[in-house]
Specification:
about 400 residues, alpha+beta, FAD/NAD(P)-binding domain, D-Amino Acid Oxidase, Chain A, domain 2, 2 domains, 8-stranded mixed β-sheet, about 35% helix, about 30% strand, binds flavin-adenine dinucleotide
Length: about 400
């Protein structure tokens, strides 16, 4: 098989890989993007199990606007998110405290928009297909990587070989690029798991998301994109044995359990998608770069799904990478990559520690940790300045 040459090779065609390909391709830069599992068709049947939605904050949307026509995507398949309600439930499940965060408190009409991953993926793919500078390799993965001072050599799962000035690892939490370059990870693991599914419910939710804290983990209700105010996505985290039990329940029984756990926040529920499950293993790469290679997105940081941080953090990775690369003639110049990694490492580490700490607080049944959680929520909701700082930290905005 003939060797192919490119400026940037992106491993992984998920949301992160597609955004990176679009951001880095232009007439002076040729990009190749591969995906081990996806044939890059947009048939819904490709992802019957991926009913996930993502809340993208205003900062991320500003960047996405430079890559695709967001206006159409948001008006046809988005939902404004302008309020977050945090409920603290006592040991018996009774609601003890309600804290409400409104986008008005930071003078914004919304925090961001909720978009279905599937629709975002399709919109990104349409733009990628339009670009003459991006070549897609469907159902082909990275098998092995070795690097030299001037280039990265990529061996593909079909035996093909690529030579690139820069290799971007956007191939998810089990990144083969990361493994092949022998970059280790910091791991945080709790006996916790999660399920996510879509529901139809009796009470309207509007533009609000609700997080209910008890022990075991948060139970989050996120409005589904579109006009309908009676459909939502649930992210439910709890002890592994409980999640395993819920996951195996038939739809009607799972809806009853979810209704109980939600304290009736949105009334009676009915499942409208099958549940998807994941485990409570979270990790961050110990290094974000290597000679001729960088790691981004879940290949670099896999966080608990709390406070809608994951993909928003990824957008910040891509924005910064683009900033550095735009200034350089050679996108894989070691100086560019070290500058990128040193500027990116601590903000990512801070989010990694922050979300895992919040997750531990929500998981724990220990009285001091429960008290800390409830005192924290009360402090942030009763003090305007603390509330503003918390919201801006969550939204990845400059604090001062
Ligand atoms: C329940 C849940 C809710 C979430 N909600 C939010 C939210 O509201 N807001 C937010 O910002 N984030 C959220 N996140 C996080 C967000 O969904 C992820 O950060 C994002 O989808 C990950 O994108 P990715 O492209 O890094 O990884 P993936 O989507 O996993 O893509 C990686 C791709 O790499 C491919 N691949 C794997 N191995 C190889 C290989 N060897 N070679 C080539 N390709 C390969 C895979 O096929 C896959 O397509 C949530 C996560 C979960 C679990």
């Amino acid at each position: 098989m003939k060797k192919q040459y490119c400026d940037v090779f992106v491993s992984g065609g998920g949301l992160a890989g597609l955004m990176t390909s679009l951001a880095l391709a232009d007439k002076s830069r040729k990009v190749i993007c591969c995906d081990l599992n996806w044939d890059f068709s947009t048939e819904i049947t490709d992802f019957p199990q991926d009913q996930r939605v993502t809340a993208l904050f205003n900062n991320s949307l500003e960047f996405l606007k430079t890559l695709l026509s967001l206006k159409t995507l948001l008006s046809t398949s988005g939902k404004r998110l302008s309020e977050i309600e945090v409920l603290e439930a006592g040991a018996n499940g009774d609601i003890k405290q309600v804290s409400t965060f409104s986008s008005k408190s930071v003078s914004k009409s919304e925090f961001g928009w909720v978009i279905a991953n599937r629709n975002l993926r399709s919109a990104l793919l349409a733009e990628v297909r339009r670009s003459p500078y991006i070549n897609l390799l469907p159902k082909v993965g990275v098998a092995k990587v070795f690097t030299r001072a001037r280039e990265a050599h990529i061996i593909l799962s079909n035996g093909g070989r690529i030579v690139a000035k820069l290799l971007v690892g956007a191939d998810g939490k089990n990144s083969q690029v990361r493994n092949s370059l022998q970059i280790n990870t910091r791991n945080i693991s709790l006996p916790q798991a999660g399920i996510s599914f879509n529901i139809r419910h009796k009470k309207p939710l509007g533009q609000k998301s609700i997080e209910i804290y008890q022990s075991g983990g948060p139970f989050t209700i996120i409005p589904l994109p579109g006009e309908d105010e009676y459909c939502s996505n649930i992210i439910w985290m709890d002890k592994t044995e409980k999640i395993d039990k819920y996951y195996n329940l038939e739809a009607k029984k799972l809806a009853i359990e979810a209704g109980k756990r939600s304290q009736g926040a949105v009334g009676e529920m009915e499942l409208i998608s099958s549940p998807m499950k994941w485990t409570g293993n979270y990790q961050m790469a110990k290094k974000l770069y290597h000679e001729r290679a960088v790691l981004i997105a879940e290949a670099a940081h896999n966080l608990p799904p709390l406070g809608a941080q994951g993909l928003n953090l990824t957008v910040s990775d891509i924005k910064l990478l683009l900033e550095f690369i735009t200034l350089a003639e050679d996108p894989g110049d070691i100086q560019i990559l070290t500058n990128f990694a040193s500027k990116r490492f601590f903000p990512v580490l801070l989010k990694f520690i922050g979300t895992n700490f919040l997750n531990l607080l929500s998981f724990s049944n220990l009285v001091p940790l429960r008290t800390l959680r409830s005192k924290g929520a009360s402090l942030f909701s009763s003090n305007n300045e603390f509330q503003r700082l918390l919201i801006q930290f969550g939204l990845n905005e400059e604090l001062f």
